[in-house]
Design brief:
By secondary structure, the chain is an all-beta fold. It is 1% helix and 44% strand. The chain contains 1 helix and 51 strands. A 6-stranded antiparallel sheet has the order 5-4-1-44-41-40, with no helix packed on it. The chain has a 6-stranded antiparallel sheet with strand order 21-22-25-26-29-30, with no helix packed on it. Strand 15 and strand 16 form a beta hairpin. The N terminus is likely disordered.
């Protein structure tokens, strides 16, 4: 594998033009997280850290939504704000993975729920979330929900369940500035509510090409959405569900007239775990809803859920309905023939050149062939979880479906969340595995090992395997991809979780990464898998003299000494061809970096302080 990594763009073209082969390769990887979390060595959607979503803007800046737990919270070694037991971490990088900014969303407890982010390419980043404010004025240590460093929800002053207060509102649409991550505005979607009626069903949203946001919202009794919705008083334990379009107006979002949907039962199952997806086809004015009905995992307890009084009977479902009337167009469910259900649709995306859609996820294979609507999957030679990617027409006809061509050990693997993204003529399928066979690629691990992150690239026209790439980790440790996006150059941005070490294969071209906090809990990681160098050339760096930074001696043989007028934060060293060869965290105004292990040659060191980024050429003797 070619080991040329992250291209270093430098003001005044200090480096020669870099050339990449058209083969994908890992360019860089970084991590985020804290020390606490689930007590399990495995993974839980809610109670572990992971990257939940990734978005890329037209300038090739990338935005990440992650969950993070308390104690030692950091983003690639730099401390970040902590408000409660668990928070949401929103952050951005440039196309080289350099951190642009970060913002923490959270408060006392662990009741911040959001799974998706959208960018409008006009300076706005949007989150729709469910935030339970646990800050009562009677508790001096309580922290209200913060949306950024300076904006928070009001304290709750009453001690009963029936007093109306602004701090009780749980459903919000948030807009952040993409330039610095500061909150531009927050819109509570509920009206006046009490603690007893503050629960909502939110978090599902989709942004169309006109930057309008579409969502399905569930409310209990009361008047909501700026007076446009009134839910009858009888809805105290259940919800009325509405389809809402938020019209984009120069960065503002104004809700159009909501459409009451014929949904009864509990759509909220799977919402808090990020297991429900919404997609809108603006050409057909058609919506798709994909979800999961099981309470917990590996059970047979399903939530009651009906559309137009027709109940769903299986665990995972896909529903298409008319955007003007809400009338059902078609539905499909997984039928695996087993009593214990654990089927999920993880991703739901639309084709760029047609009205076809793609879904991905997993289903449980028994001793009979599983079906999805009228389509029957081939019967695998094992009884376990089966990952899949599928392409369907707008009418629900399956064009192709792809499952692994086999496994390399006696059993399959129940991976957590397999997400997909379109990239030109291919579909990237990011998940975890330890024994998949895809085409000519076989993932081989010893018995007793656990999953490693795996990216499968499929031809979008027929599902044929184009390529497969894995990240190796240490034995008996579970690590996976949970999010994927594609930048403007056709490169992959991926995120997930890991528990101990990643990139343990010396040939993958990225330095081995170990969790930077103690505790044995999962950490988020994010990485770039690319076939080209960054096309982003717009950020001007400060010169060393302007930033008050001195480096000596230069040329250097063993130790490079650094002095700065303000505390240094981090460093990264690049080789003459742009590959990252060494990086680390700094803390004071006087630091030193040992370079004795580097071969003789020309290098570039990028230094970051709290207010500047500096790149300087150094010569290693």
């Amino acid at each position: 594998m070619i080991q040329s990594k992250s291209k270093l763009w430098i003001l005044f073209l200090m480096l020669p033009v870099l050339s990449f082969s058209q083969n994908y390769q890992w360019q860089w990887a970084k991590q985020a997280g804290g020390q606490t979390g689930s007590n399990s060595a495995f993974f839980d959607y809610l109670y572990d850290e992971s990257i939940r979503d990734i978005a890329v803007d037209n300038n090739n800046n990338t935005y990440y939504l992650a969950s993070t737990w308390a104690q030692g919270q950091n983003l690639n070694g730099v401390p970040v704000t902590s408000y409660g037991l668990r928070d949401l971490l929103l952050f951005s990088t440039d196309c080289q993975g350099n951190i642009r900014w970060s913002r923490t969303i959270g408060g006392s407890g662990y009741n911040e729920f959001a799974w998706n982010i959208e960018v409008d390419n006009n300076g706005g980043l949007y989150i729709m979330g469910y935030f339970i404010n646990q800050a009562n004025a009677s508790d001096p240590n309580a922290v209200p929900i913060h949306f950024d460093d300076t904006h928070s929800m009001p304290l709750i002053t009453a001690s009963d369940q029936n007093t109306i207060e602004a701090g009780n509102k749980t459903s919000h649409l948030l807009k952040f500035n993409t330039s610095d991550g500061k909150l531009a505005w927050s819109k509570p979607l509920q009206g006046d509510v009490t603690i007893a009626l503050r629960q909502t069903v939110t978090q599902m949203m989709y942004m169309d090409s006109s930057k309008n946001i579409h969502a399905i919202l569930g409310f209990k009794a009361g008047t909501h959405l700026n007076g446009q919705i009134t839910v009858p008083a009888s809805y105290t334990t259940s919800y009325q569900y509405y389809l809402v379009k938020f019209n984009y107006d120069n960065g503002n979002m104004t809700p159009a007239t909501p459409l009451l949907l014929p949904i009864t039962g509990d759509l909220s199952v799977g919402i808090a775990d990020g297991k429900v997806n919404l997609l809108y086809d603006e050409g057909l004015n058609r919506y798709y809803l994909a979800g999961k009905r099981m309470y917990g995992d590996y059970t047979n307890v399903l939530a009651d859920f009906s559309y137009n009084n027709i109940p769903f009977t299986k665990d995972a479902y896909l529903l298409a309905f008319n955007g003007a009337t809400g009338a059902e167009l078609w539905r499909k469910e997984f039928n695996t023939g087993v009593t214990i259900l654990d089927d999920e649709i993880h991703s739901l995306i639309k084709d760029t050149g047609s009205s076809d859609i793609y879904i991905s996820g997993r289903y449980f294979a028994g001793d009979t062939a599983a079906s999805f609507g009228e389509y029957t999957f081939p019967l695998p030679n094992y009884q376990e979880q089966v990952p899949f990617v599928m392409r369907l027409t707008a009418d629900g006809v399956v064009k192709w479906a792809k499952i692994p061509d086999g496994i390399t050990s006696f059993t399959g693997y129940r991976f957590m969340k397999g997400m997909i993204a379109l990239n030109g003529n291919e579909v990237g399928f990011a998940k975890g595995s330890w024994n998949d066979v895809w085409g000519n690629y076989s993932m081989v691990r010893p018995n007793g090992d656990l999953s490693d992150p795996l990216l499968v690239r499929l031809n979008k026209d027929n599902g044929a395997v184009i390529g497969v790439e894995e990240i190796r980790s240490n034995f008996e440790i579970q690590d996976e991809f949970t999010a994927i996006a594609v930048d403007k150059d056709g490169n992959y941005l991926l995120g997930g979780y890991f528990h101990d070490q990643l990139f343990t294969d010396s040939n993958d071209g990225v330095d081995m990464m170990a969790v930077n906090v103690t505790g044995g809990k999962s950490q988020s990681f994010f990485t770039k898998y690319a076939k080209s160098a960054c096309s982003q050339m717009s950020v001007v760096e400060t010169s060393a003299s302007q930033a008050g930074i001195q480096l000596y001696p230069n040329p250097v043989q063993d130790v490079l000494y650094i002095k700065s007028k303000e505390p240094l934060v981090s460093y990264e060293i690049y080789g003459a061809t742009g590959q990252s060869v060494k990086q680390g965290v700094l803390n004071t105004v006087q630091e030193q970096v040992t370079l004795s292990s580097l071969p003789t040659g020309v290098y570039y060191i990028k230094l970051t302080t709290k207010s500047a980024t500096v790149t300087e050429k150094i010569i290693k003797k």
